[in-house]
Specification:
The complex is a heterodimer of chains A (about 400) and B (about 450). Chain A has about 400 residues and is an alpha/beta fold. Chain A has twelve helices and 18 strands. In chain A, strand 1, helix 1 and strand 2 form a beta-alpha-beta unit. In chain B, helix 4 runs parallel beside helix 5. Chain B starts with 6 loop residues before the first strand and ends in a 7-residue tail after the last strand. The chains are: A alpha/beta (about 400), B alpha/beta (about 450).
Chain lengths: ~400, ~450
């Protein structure tokens, strides 16, 4: 039996961020319990900090929205352009941008004080335009976010060629979101965890939470196969598996479900991309070790994490079209991750009415990497009873309970 | 289920070929997917170019090679060989993705036998990456299939029965073998006499090899092993030293030998990447690494998927043949070609032989059980994962920081993330985790699709 103030269930990027911020900003005794399961989204992620890109439906969401728009166009007639921007609500922009702004300082802090480098790179995210439809799409995107005009650069074909000489000559230009960057996703998780460990967090790795202990309306702890951990507050950071833990803690269910994304990775190449790239087919990012990462499919197939040739072919063709030099390279490996999806694409954060000692930090869908920092900060504020720096109301799980 | 579909066999080594031959004998057709241009596997494939004379190979080996060919040709009309073809991974639930030349294709199956063999167990020590330092399987491929001499002046280090065998083959190939260094003590081998008597013929053949080495004054040292290899761009010399019972080198009494090639043989691990990628349940074995969990009919946790030969646990070619036959008999029973009673009769003799071979082998496995000294050979700056250039020091730091499983170790150090998907470094990493006291849920380096790289151009729009 062990006693902690806080137990965090889940050691992906969200759980790890919560552990780091809690250990940095409070004196609380914290344990983090984690088991590696196939499909863990933080490890599978591309590591894009695409705060604007993701908020307007590019990057990781692009294939999803393309499919969605196509279905809508088909049902509404042919006059509507196939690609239409899919913009998330203002509360998400605020959430993602606030988080994104934290990374430069966080990178310095974790490197200087804890000796870990999560490979933060200032890259921008360029949406590459091949034709007039793409241009109309880009114009719609920028019209939708007038308050972020200073974060957007328009590049014509020649400027694009100068900045990204390896991108196809067929491109007619690009828009660049200048505040969108990238990290190495598993290094980020590792950096948070190592920082937390050095700050005194107990890392209970390789262990799975089996049971949640309750006394009346209060969560009092969890058990693993080896040990019982009592706590004042349990934080659910269980990613695509969050609903199972939520149910164990509250007896209720919430709509967090796995959304599979397949990724294609090239061999190492010399530097051929200066920034991250999204087209209407896929996103492409060259990572710190030279590999080119291409993503990502959006499939609802439960907890299945197999790869399929059809999706890999689609992604590869999308990438070849944009970056012809890939013709000289090989697919080194592919994988699939399980995004913790929610119906409105917003995360689920905060307390649950009627249950004491329990906090949700889950449902981060495509954007867990970019929003992990603010999530760690907000959860720390919540635990210590401070006023949260952003309003958590839009992210409460109760938004799914209102219809009853 | 319709039974017109041929049984698909991945790997045309002893296990796969024996399975196909046994199926053929029972009138069942099969397709063998083989990465090389001919059947036999590394052990029995023989030269990849035509030759009539193999003076460097002993008669036992030549007889065994011929016997496998005979089995194959006797049932040839039931067997389709897809040669020079590699399996890239599963595609859907009952299909594999294949690569031959510049084309990708799918093969569907109802029953599948995985007979993918084993690969080498790498042991990092100072200088292990120098050209001229080779693992024992590679040495064998050069002399048996490539018909080239791996070096002019060679030493062998490692453990187990392959050491004298390869030493004899090298000597017959005209190579100056300056010494053979067996890590374990002779007294340990003597204790296994009872186990070794399960296969008196194999034991005798081992003794005759030792006699051959003696006759040709090739020194064979028990309780000795590698310390380091030296050279600038290629191997120039090696340092060997007496090992204690924990295989810790007594460097005070080390010797340096000038050689241009070194064979290193501390064992093999099951080549289970495809089985893991297909989601078969696996367990960890000290001898063979990750091996699939099987019933006595070689059937895995996935319906209609069988695993035979070294990929189910490294036991050598004779056992692989038995296992291939057992899987084939079970498939015949499931198809209604044999009754339960007939299957039991057919398999009974084979299963008894397999048991004997296992008892024999377990003697050598105890004799050759890896000791802690082997992990102490790498210096802090020695690269242990050569794709990602991860050093021993990086692994040490990660373990000191509390890493307890292979996935976390991989995330932290990039060990296992390279092109070889951990085939080279995983054994060392797992041994280190065990050594540092982690025993549960260490996990395995999860193979990723595709098992071999796919050129992007294969997927271009046609």
């Amino acid at each position: 039996m062990k006693k902690f103030d806080i137990v965090i269930a889940g050691g992906g990027v969200i759980g790890a961020a919560c552990a780091y911020f809690l250990s940095r900003d409070t004196q609380l005794k914290v344990a983090l319990i984690d088991i590696k399961k196939p499909g863990n989204a933080s490890r599978a992620s591309a590591g894009g900090l695409w705060a604007i890109g993701e908020s307007v439906g590019l990057g990781c969401g692009v294939i999803f929205f393309k499919t969605l728009s196509k279905l809508q166009s088909e049902s509404k007639g042919k006059d509507i352009p196939v690609m239409r921007p899919h913009q998330l609500p203002d509360c998400f922009f605020e959430f993602a941008l606030a988080s994104n702004a934290m990374y430069p300082a966080l990178h310095k802090e974790l490197f200087e004080q804890h000796g870990v480098d999560f490979k933060f790179e200032r890259t921008g995210l360029k949406f590459i335009m091949y034709n007039q439809d793409d241009r109309i799409y880009a114009e719609q995107i920028t019209r939708g976010i007038p308050h972020l005009a200073d974060q957007i650069r328009w590049l014509d074909a020649q400027q694009l060629k100068e900045e990204e000489p390896y991108i196809t000559d067929d491109a007619i230009g690009a828009i660049d979101f200048i505040c969108d960057h990238q990290v190495n996703p598993y290094r980020l998780v590792d950096a948070y965890l190592e920082g937390a460990r050095q700050n005194g967090v107990d890392l209970v790795l390789n262990s799975e939470v089996n049971k949640v202990l309750r006394k009346d309306d209060r969560v009092t702890g969890v058990t693993t196969q080896e040990e019982t951990y009592y706590c004042d507050t349990l934080i659910n950071a269980a990613g695509a598996w969050a609903d199972t833990l939520f149910n164990k803690a509250t007896g209720l269910n919430m709509p967090v479900y796995p959304v599979k994304g397949q990724i294609v990775l090239s061999e190492r190449l010399p530097k051929v991309l200066n920034g991250c790239v999204s087209t209407s087919d896929c996103y492409i990012a060259q990572k710190d070790n030279g590999e080119i990462l291409i993503g990502s499919s959006t499939e609802e197939k439960g907890f299945d994490t197999t790869n399929s040739l059809d999706k890999i072919t689609e992604l590869s063709q999308g990438a070849l079209k944009c970056l012809p030099i890939l013709k000289d390279s090989n697919i080194k490996r592919c994988w699939a991750g399980l995004r913790p999806g929610t119906p409105d694409e917003l995360p689920i954060l905060g307390h649950v009415p009627g249950i004491k000692g329990y906090i949700n930090a889950c449902g981060h869908f495509r954007t867990g990497i970019v929003t992990s920092a603010i999530t760690g900060k907000l959860i720390t504020e919540l635990v210590t009873g401070q006023e949260t720096s952003l309003d958590l109301t839009p992210f409460s799980v109760t938004r799914f309970f209102t219809q009853e | 289920m319709t039974h017109s579909c041929p049984v698909v066999i991945v790997g045309g080594g002893p296990a796969g070929t024996a399975a196909a031959a046994q199926l053929g004998k029972l009138g069942i057709t099969s397709k063998i997917i083989e990465e090389a241009s001919k059947i036999g596997g590394v052990i029995y494939r023989g030269p990849l170019r035509n030759t009539h004379s193999l003076p460097h190979l002993d008669d036992n080996l030549k007889r065994a090679m011929a016997a496998l060919q005979t089995r194959y040709y006797a049932n040839r009309r039931h067997i389709e060989l897809l040669e020079n073809t590699r399996v890239l991974g599963p595609e859907g639930t009952h299909s594999l993705l294949l690569n031959k030349g510049e084309t990708l294709s799918n093969i569907e199956y109802q029953e599948l036998i995985l007979a993918t063999g084993c690969h080498e167990r790498s042991v990092p020590f100072e200088g292990w990456q120098l050209p001229g330092v080779m693992l024992m399987g590679g040495v064998q491929l050069q002399i048996k299939s490539g018909l080239v001499q791996p070096g002019r002046k060679m030493a062998l280090v490692g453990t187990g029965p392959l050491l004298p065998l390869v030493a004899c083959q090298l000597h017959r190939s005209g190579i100056d073998v300056v010494g053979v260094y067996e890590a374990s003590q002779f007294s340990k081998l003597a204790k296994e006499a009872v186990a070794l008597l399960n296969e008196p013929k194999l034991t005798l053949s081992g003794l005759s090899m030792m006699g051959y080495l003696k006759k040709h004054t090739i020194p064979f040292y028990y309780g000795w092993g590698i310390v380091s290899a030296q050279g600038e761009n290629a191997l120039k010399s090696i340092t060997v030293a007496p090992y204690n019972e924990h295989w810790q080198a007594d460097t005070q009494n080390a010797q340096t030998l000038e050689v241009d090639a070194l064979g290193v043989g501390y064992g093999f691990v099951a080549r289970s990447q495809l089985a893991m990628l297909m989601g078969l349940d696996h367990q960890y074995s000290t001898v063979s690494g990750s091996i699939p969990t099987l019933d006595q009919w070689q059937h895995s946790s996935v319906n209609n998927v069988y695993v035979a030969g070294d990929s189910s646990g490294v036991l050598g070619a004779d056992a692989a043949i038995c296992e291939g036959q057992i899987a084939a008999i079970r498939i015949a029973q499931n198809r209604g070609v044999l009754t339960g009673k007939e299957a039991a009769q057919h398999a009974g003799k084979v299963m008894r032989k397999l048991e004997r071979l296992k008892r024999f082998r377990s003697g050598f496995d105890r004799f050759s059980e890896r000791q802690v000294g082997l992990m102490e050979l790498a210096k802090p700056e020695t690269v242990v994962c050569r794709c990602e250039k991860t050093t021993r020091a990086q692994v040490d730091i990660a373990l000191a920081q509390g890493v307890k499983d292979i996935t976390s170790l991989k995330m932290r150090t990039r060990l296992g993330m390279g092109d070889c998907q951990g085939k080279t470094c995983a054994s060392y990493a797992i041994d280190r985790l065990y050594q540092s006291g982690c025993t549960d849920n260490i996990g395995a380096i999860k193979p990723r699709f595709p098992l071999d790289p796919i050129p992007f151009t294969f997927l271009e729009e046609q």
